[in-house]
UniProtKB/TrEMBL annotation:
This is Uncharacterized protein. The lineage of its organism: Eukaryota, Viridiplantae, Streptophyta, Embryophyta, Tracheophyta. Residues 1-18 form the signal peptide. Keywords: Signal.
Amino acid sequence: MNATKFVVLMIFVGVVCAKVGARQLEEVSKENKIDISDPKTATTNGLGAELAVTASTSAYHSEYSGANAAAGPKGPSADGYGSTYGYTSGYVTADGPNANAYSSSGAYGQTGAYAAAGPGGATGSGYSDGYAGSSAGGSISDP
């Protein structure tokens, strides 16, 4: 592949990365309220007669990417990079039988690449890393 074709290819990759990176910040929120009534005549195992539950969830997501291409005295070079981040969380609260619960999760990723070509040959490298995690828990006890 000659240097001109390489530069054209890297510019094309840069345009694609720029289009992916043009996504807008996105934020989502949602809240629900659920009321549950359990009459005192029902068997509740001593955990209480009335239960009101509120549940809430939210999510956040963002992306960023970019690309560069250049022609220099040693030959053309190009690089591209991007990252994404997301997080969701939720909780449940209960009035009555001393109950609660929660959950959350998150994820993060990052990638990058570099390529160059010159009279002595071509070189390239790339990297990628990411993280994902979640947690949940809750408790209930006799009043």
